[in-house]
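I'm stuck. Please check this protein.
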Amino acid sequence: MPTPVNRVPTNFSLTGVQVGNPVSSAHVLRWAEECSFNGGYNVQSILALNLKPRAAARTQLEALGAYSVPFVYYRSPGAQVLAVVVSIAPGTVDSASTVTLDVTLPTGAAWLEANGLDGSVNFRYPPGGRVAQGEVVGYIDVSGVTASTATMGSLDVTLNIGTVSQGILRLTILEVPLASSNVTADPAEPILEQAWTLSPNRLVDGGPSSPRGLNRLAYLMDQYRTGFRPHIQIAGIESSNNGATATNPHWHRDGTFGPLEWQYNVTGAHDPRFRFQVRNLYGVGAGAPDQTYTLHVRYKTSGATAGILGAYVSGVGGTALASQDTALAATSNVWTWETRSITVPADGTGGLVQVYFDCTAGGSGQVLQVANITLVDSNP
């Protein structure tokens, strides 16, 4: 029978069932309800991008003709569907002024309902001045994507007539929670069969490949720690534009070491700090051990000189780590991904972490361009 998926965690402390008395089905039912929330509903928000105009004097999005928004995706073991939500920017309203949106799917994914996000529709721009803005929503079947492993995708935007619109305003990608689970027929879903916990069913050991049992419960508790990967994704755009730093539309840096030009629509230097909270897996706050994250960078160099991206990570009110430098091999204006493991302190107040990035293109007259910086929890 189907197992319902809880929309909120139960208002119950699981330590309360550690009473030293014989186990009853009522105790295990509480665990099963927590499993349904963790495995079926508590899935990940992958990306939330608000795309702003480029800084003054830079090449504007309207003039690019085409650009892409690259993203990183680690599928949660219980996720079956990925939703892609796009808001189209206002522009000239006529039959010729359109934008084409084409999602490059992660390996193993397939469209469930594209709604034109597969490049098959030329969308007209909405008129300016609207309070409410429409959205185009597509659904991707990700059941064939390898769980807990990095896969890459992108939203490719083509402006069929340039200079009339910047293309899109927002892009949101999120895993869709399950309404219920058929874990009885498919034990690969990371949920515990709730019907098994009801009287007069027997309490059994089960195992990882079984939908029920106490060994299955222990397996799921471990999988929730290691298989579900929160994403901290700082996403921008990439294009074929290779302009010098004075006009470059991407996040970029010239030959000297320092902050990226983040394309703010104001003058002056900016070096933003990004904050997130680590999971309380092994304790957080004073004395908590460091955690491990995977850093993904989407970049290109203007020439044959390698660049460097420095990540400065600190616990808020805790340890400030030295720069963790990532060598970025020369690409001669070809976009590519670089991946490495970095250390994140968990001794900040409440596990709060702050990170900022400095970089260099590696030489005078060189330009390093960046389209995506992502940190993904990879704790064992």
